[in-house]
Design goal:
Number of domains: 1
Structural class: mainly beta
Oligomer: single chain
CATH architecture: Sandwich
Strand order of the largest sheet: 2-3-4-9-6-7
Order of helices and strands: EEEEEEEEEH
CATH topology: Immunoglobulin-like
Helix content: under 10%
CATH superfamily: Golgi alpha-mannosidase II
Length: 112
C-alpha cells in the first residue's frame, strides 16, 4: 500500500486536499489501473471528531465494464485516523470531512 500525503502526483495517481471554512475536501483519481493507498488525516484539528462523507468506486467498478458503480459512506474520523482508499481502474474518490455534531458522533459510533 502506498501512503500519500497532502498532495501527491505519482504520474498515475493523484490525491489532493483543500479546506473550505471548517470543512476539508479530498479528491483522488487514478488511470486505468486500480490503486490502493492509505491517506493519513494528520492535518485535521486535534481533539475534534469529523464526519467523513466518502463517495467512492463500488467494489465492481471499472472504467470499461461498470463505469457508474459507486458507493456513498459516512465514517467518524479524527486526526489519528488513516483512510484506506481503493480506487477502481479509471476511478477515484471524493471525500468531505466536516466537524461532527454530537448527534452524528452518537449515530456513527453506534453503527460501528
Amino acid at each position: 500500500m502506498m501512503r500519500l500525503g497532502l498532495w501527491s502526483n505519482l504520474s498515475d495517481t493523484l490525491a489532493r486536499k483543500q479546506r473550505g471554512g471548517e470543512d476539508w475536501f479530498i479528491g483522488s483519481i487514478t488511470n486505468e489501473k486500480k490503486r490502493n493507498f492509505d491517506l493519513p488525516l494528520k492535518f485535521l484539528d486535534k481533539n475534534r471528531s469529523y464526519v467523513a462523507e466518502i463517495y467512492r468506486d463500488a467494489d465492481a467498478a471499472d472504467w470499461k465494464t461498470n463505469p457508474i458503480a459507486y458507493k456513498i459512506e459516512k465514517r467518524l474520523v479524527t486526526r489519528d485516523s488513516i483512510l484506506s482508499l481503493h480506487l477502481a481502474p479509471g476511478g477515484g474518490e471524493a471525500i468531505r470531512l466536516k466537524p461532527a455534531t454530537q448527534e452524528e458522533q452518537e449515530i456513527l459510533k453506534a453503527k460501528g
